[in-house]
């Protein structure tokens, strides 16, 4: 025989189960819940009559949900006994009431406000991952929801976050709630904010230093085969080579051919503001990125800062030749200034947007083709 207190504790423990909580709050399938109370044995009815009567009375006093009683016959009793059989909880509000737990009530009330203020795609994240918001002021979480509904890929257009207007928050607010904001944007844009980093996703100027991989492609240019420098250093101190090859992804390092008078800088992604530094004056600049909308958006951004940037292997011919390796692009780049792309690059962008599988990542281009293309373009 289970008492109302025991089953209330069981329900409260179930609230802590992320998957179960999401299922019960977001789908109609589990309702109503039926919790078995358990019935006394014949010996208990005969030998512990007072305890059984107390058990029955406790359940008669329960006002949340519905306690279903059933009559049961016992061999040595003249009349059937009406006993509580199961406790039926009909909806999430009754579940929370039945828990008899102040923390559960508080969280449910907060969740109700958050769900009301959010988009449907955000519901599961908010319900499953309470750690993202439950120790924050509710008013600030609500403001973060509003902000997440306004932001779009590339909306910062190269500005620092502190200079953005129209969003009603400052840089410190974004820093305090960066993880929650990024995860909320992931629900709208297929995890793109986490994959690219929040600032890159927004095309916001990162005013903090980032470490980039620098690799000389010829002997004697640097005393190291590879090293990391900050973006500030790259903007201020000229590298000892006339040619600089910018490569979107670090994992393509092994594909690069030896090249005289050339140094590669890998892994910058959208962190391209350093290109405006004096250290790049007079350099021949080349850019190689993924063949997808984001790669072309980054190329446009690089060329906005340095109009002389030449694209490498970012052509429709290359995409067509290796289209068998192309995949679906989960979230395409938002609107960006295409005036920094050549007509053929703009046509490539349209072509990629028309494809079901419009993303060809750099590392799927064969080594021989990479060597031939880079060597041919840069040396010529």
Question: What features would you describe in this structure?
Answer:
The structure is a single chain. With 380 residues, the chain is α/β, with parallel strands linked by helices. It is 42% helix and 12% strand. The protein has 17 helices and nine strands. Strands 5-4-7-6-8-9 form a six-stranded mixed beta sheet. The chain has a three-stranded antiparallel beta sheet with strand order 1-3-2. Helix 6 (102-117) packs parallel to helix 8 (138-150). The termini are far apart. The mean pLDDT is 89.
Mean pLDDT: 89
How much of the sequence lies in strands comes to 5-15%
Overall body shape: elongated
Helical content class:
40-55%
Q: What structural class results from the helix and strand content? A: alpha/beta
User: Over all CA atoms, what is the radius of gyration?
Assistant: 31 Å
Q: What topology, given as strand order, has the largest sheet?
A: 5-4-7-6-8-9
Give the count of structural domains.
3
Question: What's this entry about, in short?
Answer:
With about 375 residues, the protein is α/β, with parallel strands linked by helices. The chain has helices spanning about 5-15, 20-25, 40-45, 50-60, 90-100, 100-115, 125-130, 140-150, 170-175, 180-190, 190-195, 200, 230-235, 295-305, 315-320, 345-355, 365-380, and strands spanning about 35, 65-70, 80-90, 210-215, 225-230, 245, 260-265, 285-290, 310.
């Amino acid at each position: 025989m289970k008492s109302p207190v025991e089953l209330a504790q069981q329900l409260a423990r179930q609230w802590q189960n992320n998957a179960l909580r999401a299922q019960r709050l977001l789908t109609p399938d589990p309702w109503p819940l039926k919790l078995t109370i358990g019935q006394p044995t014949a010996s208990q009815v005969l030998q512990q009559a007072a305890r059984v009567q107390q058990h029955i009375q406790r359940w008669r006093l329960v006002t949340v949900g519905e306690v279903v009683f059933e009559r049961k016959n016992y061999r040595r009793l003249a009349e059937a006994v009406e006993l509580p059989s199961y406790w039926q909880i009909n909806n999430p509000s009754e579940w929370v009431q039945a828990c008899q737990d102040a923390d559960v009530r508080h969280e449910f009330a907060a969740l109700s406000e958050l769900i009301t203020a959010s988009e449907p795609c955000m519901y599961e994240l908010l319900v499953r991952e309470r750690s993202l918001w439950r120790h924050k002021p509710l008013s600030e979480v609500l403001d973060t929801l509003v902000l997440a509904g306004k932001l779009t890929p590339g909306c910062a257009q190269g500005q620092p976050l502190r200079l953005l207007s129209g969003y009603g928050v400052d840089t410190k607010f974004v820093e305090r709630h960066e993880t929650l904001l990024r995860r909320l944007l992931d629900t709208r844009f297929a995890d793109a904010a986490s994959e690219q980093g929040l600032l890159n996703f927004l095309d916001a100027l990162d005013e903090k230093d980032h470490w980039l991989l620098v690799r000389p492609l010829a002997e004697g240019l640097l005393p190291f085969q590879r090293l990391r420098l900050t973006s500030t250093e790259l903007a201020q101190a000229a590298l000892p080579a006339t040619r600089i090859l910018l490569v979107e992804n670090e994992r393509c390092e092994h594909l690069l051919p030896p090249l005289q008078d050339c140094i590669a800088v890998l892994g910058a992604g959208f962190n391209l503001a350093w290109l405006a530094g004096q250290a790049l004056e007079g350099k021949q600049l080349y850019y190689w990125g993924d063949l997808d909308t984001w790669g072309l958006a980054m190329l446009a951004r690089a060329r906005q800062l340095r109009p002389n940037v030449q694209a490498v292997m970012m052509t429709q011919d290359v995409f067509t030749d290796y289209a068998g390796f192309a995949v679906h692009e989960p979230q395409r780049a938002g609107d960006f200034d295409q005036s920094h792309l050549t007509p053929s690059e703009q046509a490539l962008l349209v072509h990629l947007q028309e494809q079901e599988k419009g993303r060809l990542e750099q590392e799927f281009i064969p080594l021989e083709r990479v060597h031939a293309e880079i060597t041919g373009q840069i040396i010529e």
